[in-house]
Amino acid sequence: MLAAALARGSRSGALAASKNLSRARSAVQKTTTRSCGLVAAVDNVWSPSPSTTSSNAAILHDINVLRQTTSRIVHRGPDGQKLTRGSMSTGGYGKWAMGHQRLAIVDPNSRTADMPFRFDFHSSGKNMSGDSKVVNLAANGEIYNHKELYAELVNEHGWKIDRGSQSDCEVIGHAYACLGPEEAVKRLDGMFAFVVFEEGDEATGKAPRAFAARDPVGIKPLYYAKTADGCGYAFASELKSLVGHVDTSTVKQVPPGHYWTPETGLVCYYNPDWLRKDDFAPWEEGKAPSIDEVREGFNAAVSKRMMADVDYGFFLSGGVDSCIVSQVLMPRYRAETGDDRPIPAFTVGMENSPDVMAARAMVDALGGERHVDHRQRVFTPEEVFNLIPKIIFHMETYETELIRSAIPNWLLAERAGADVKMVLTGEGADELFAGYLYFMDAENPRQIQNELRRIYGMLGDINLHRTDRMTMAHALEARVPFLDTKFTEMAMSVDPALKIVDKEAVQTNSPGREKTYLRNMFEGPNENGHSIPRPVLWRAKAMQCEGVGEDWVSMLQRKVAAEVTDAEMDNAHITYPLNTPHTKEELYYRRIFEDHYAGMAHVVNAWEGGCRAGGAAWESDAYTRTGLNNVGVLSHSLQEPIAARAFSTSTNARRT
Questions:
Q1: How far apart are the C-alpha atoms of 626 and 34, rounded to whole Å?
Q2: Hey, which of 26-35, 68-77, 553-562 has the most confident mean pLDDT?
Q3: What is the mean pLDDT of residues 197-207?
Q4: What percent of the chain has pLDDT over 70?
Q5: Which of these, 205, 233, 213, lies nearest to 98 by C-alpha position?
Q6: Is the dihedral of CA 400, 475, 408, 518 positive or negative?
Q7: Which of 602, 102, 627 is nearest to 396 (CA)?
Q8: Radius of gyration of the chain from Cα atoms?
C-alpha cells in the first residue's frame, strides 16, 4: 500500500521519492494518532565487493525522504523529531542517516536530550587507550540503571567524559565507547532497542562499525533489512518505516536478547541458565528463593519503574496481575513522590464485564477516589469493529489471538494516552507463574517449567508486541515490572511443583487454581493496610479480549466472518501459502495486514497450532484457535446476574 509511494531507486529519483512520500504520509496520518521511535540506514561499507558498498536508497541521500520516513512513526514520539546524517569515514566514504521521534519522559524539557546523539569521544584514561571515537546513537526505551552505570564507568573504568544531558539513554553511548558494544549491552538494565554507527578514520586505519541491539525480553521492537538495491542496511522501530526502502524478503526482527553487527550477524547476549539449560533446577539443591525474597524482588522491580519526570498512572484490568502492581505501587508512589493527588488508573471493558467490575472493587480496596482517580473506557461491541483496520496497521501482525486482545487494548491506551505519558502494567506474570487456564492439564512440574520457558520466549512477538504497539500508537509508554530480568530469574527458580494447577480449584475460584503461588504472595495487606479483595484475588485468568466481556470474542468473530466469502476461504492456501488462515476471522486479519505490509508475512512469528496452548507438550481443550471454550469460568461474584447484562448472550457456550 505504501510501497508504490516510496523511493526505491537512485539519487536522481530522490526528488520524486520525496513528493511521493509526502502523499503517502498524508494517507498514513489518517490512520494514526500521535508516540519513542527510530529509523536508521547505512551503506554496506563492510562488503568485500566494491560494487555493493554504496546504496542508492533515497533515505540515505534526501533529507526530506528521511524526514517523511521518520514521521511515519511520529505517534511513538510527538515531543520532537531530529534527523542526522554523515559519512562512515573521515574521507567521506559510506553514508549513514538516522531519524528519531522523542517521547519525553526523563529530562523532558531539555533539547540536549533529543536523539540521535552524536558523541565525539576523545582519549579518556585507560578505557580509550589513547583512541578517539565518533559515535552516533539512536535509541528507544528506558535505561533504569543509567545513573549507576555511568558511576561505574567513572569509578571503575576511568571514564572522564561528562554527560551532556540527563537522558537515561545517553549512557548507552558512554558505555559503548568505554566498555565496547558487546560488554555495554550486557550492563544495561531496562527496555531498549538501539542502533549505533561508529565512524572510521582513514588516517589511523580505524574501521567503521555498526551495532544494533534489543533488550533481553523484547519489550521494545527493532527490525532490520537490506536496502532495495542490496547495498545497504535499514533499521526501524516499526515495519511501516521500512516499507518501500528495503528488499522485503530480507526483513527480520532483532530477537530479544540479541545484538547485530554486519560482520557477525545476530548474536545472543542474554543467556541465563533458567532459559537455556534444560536441567536448570535450583530447587533440587535447596537454592530456590523464599516467597518473601520473591515478593521483595517484585517490590524492587516496581520501584525501579517509577523513574519519570512526568505524571504517570497504571493499567488496572481487574485481573490479579494488575491489582498486584497497584497494591505494590500505591504506598511507594506516596513515599517517593510526596504527591497527594490521586494517581490515575485506567480500565477498559463492556459494562458489568469481569474486568470492569473487578477493577472497581480494587479501586475501593485501595482507598477509593481519595487515592485513585479511576478513568474507565466502557465500550459497546458495535463501536469498535470499524477500528480493526487501523489497529492492524499499527499492530503490524495478523496473529489472531493477539489482535483480539489488541482491540480493547487500543481503547485502553487511547484513554490513558490522553492524560499521561507512562503507565505500569501487569504483563508477564502469566509466563512466570503458569497463569493460563490450559496449565491445569499439565502432567508434571517439568512440563510446566518447560512450557513457561517456551511462552516466555514468545513474549516479544505476542504480549509485548501488543503492549508496545497499542500504547505507542497513542504516545504512551508501558513499563512491565513482572519482566524485570532479576525478578524473572527469581520467579523461574521457584519449584514448578508450586505452580501446579488444580482443576477443581479453577471451577470454584479458590486456592490451588492458576497462579496460586503469586496470589498467596500478595494475599496480605500492603504498607497502607490495603488488601486485594478476595473475589478479585482468586478470579479466573482472563485474556483481555475475554475479561472485557465474556462474549466479546464470539461477537467479534461473527462480525468479521461476514466480511469473508466462502470462495476466499477455499483459495486461502493459494493466496497465503505461508501461515495459511484456517478461519474466516484469520483470513480477514491477514487480508488487512497484506494491504500494508506485502512481502513481510514471514516476519510474523505466530503461535504453533493457531493459539498459545497449541504448542504445549500436553493436550488441552481449554483453548483452541477460536478462543477460550468455557467463558463461564470468567464470571465472578462482583458482577450483576446474567439476566441484567446488556451484551452477554451466553456464559458457557463453546465458540464455533
A1: 33
A2: 68-77
A3: 91
A4: 86
A5: 233
A6: positive
A7: 602
A8: 25
Burial class (CB in 10 A: 0-12, 13-18, 19+), 109: exposed
pLDDT tens for 318-332 read: 899 999 999 999 999
Phi, psi of 53 (to 5 degrees): -100, -10
With b for 16 or more beta-carbon neighbours within 10 A and e for fewer, the 377-411 pattern comes to: bebebeebeeebbbbbbbbbbbbbbbbbbbbbbbb
CA-based torsion, 122, 127, 130, 135: positive or negative? negative
C-alpha torsion angle, residues 55, 58, 62, 68 (rounded to 10): -140
What is the DSSP code string of 127-171? GTTT--EEEEEEEEEEETTHHHHHHHHHHHH---PPPSS--TTHH
Q: Report, as an integer, the average pLDDT of 651-656.
A: 32
Instruction: Inform me whether the pLDDT recorded for 404 exceeds 70.
Output: yes
What would the mean pLDDT of 594-619 be, rounded to a whole number? 92
Q: What is the rounded average pLDDT of the residues 647-656? A: 34
Sign of CA dihedral 355, 358, 361, 367: negative
Distances (CA, A) of 390 to 239, 410, 460, 603: 15, 10, 21, 19
The reported pLDDT for the residue numbered 653 is 33
Angle at 397 between CA 622 and CA 266, to 5 degrees: 105
Closest CA to 512 of 499, 522, 502, 524: 502
Residue 488 in grid coordinates = 524473572
Pick the closest to residue 433 from 499, 511, 506, 532 (CA basis).
Answer: 499
Beta strand spans in 353-446 (E): 372-378, 422-424
Which pLDDT belongs to residue 641? 61
- Take residue 97 and report the three cell numbers written for it: 542517516
DSSP string, 602-654: GG--PPGGGSGGGGSSS---SEETTEES-GGGG--TTSPPGGG-SS---SSPP
- Which tens digit of pLDDT belongs to each residue from 8-61? 333 333 333 333 333 333 333 332 223 489 999 999 999 988 777 899 999 999
Provide the grid cell at 57.
536508497
Crossing angle of helices 170-179/146-157, nearest 10°? 30
pLDDT category of residue 133 using cuts at 50, 70 and 90: very high
H/E element, 481: none
Grid cell for residue 192: 531498549
Per-residue pLDDT tens digits for 233-251: 999 999 999 999 999 999 9
| Omega before residue 116 within 30° of 0, cis | yes
Q: How many residues does the chain have?
A: 656
Assess contact for 77 and 101: CB atoms under 8 A.
Answer: yes
* Cβ-based neighbour number of residue 133 at 10 Å: 20
CA distance 101 to 393: 19
Which residue in 340, 338, 339, 314 sits closest to 327, CA to CA? 314
Q: Which of 25, 123, 109, 21 is nearest to 75 (CA)?
A: 25
- Cβ neighbourhood burial of 504 (10 Å; 0-12, 13-18, 19+): exposed
State pLDDT tens for residues 478-534: 999 999 999 999 999 999 999 999 999 988 888 999 999 999 999 999 999 999 999
Q: How many CB atoms lie within 10 A of CB 287?
A: 9
User: Alpha helices, DSSP H only, in 439-502?
Assistant: 445-456, 463-472, 485-491
Our CA dihedral for 347, 349, 353, 354, rounded to 10 degrees, sits at -50
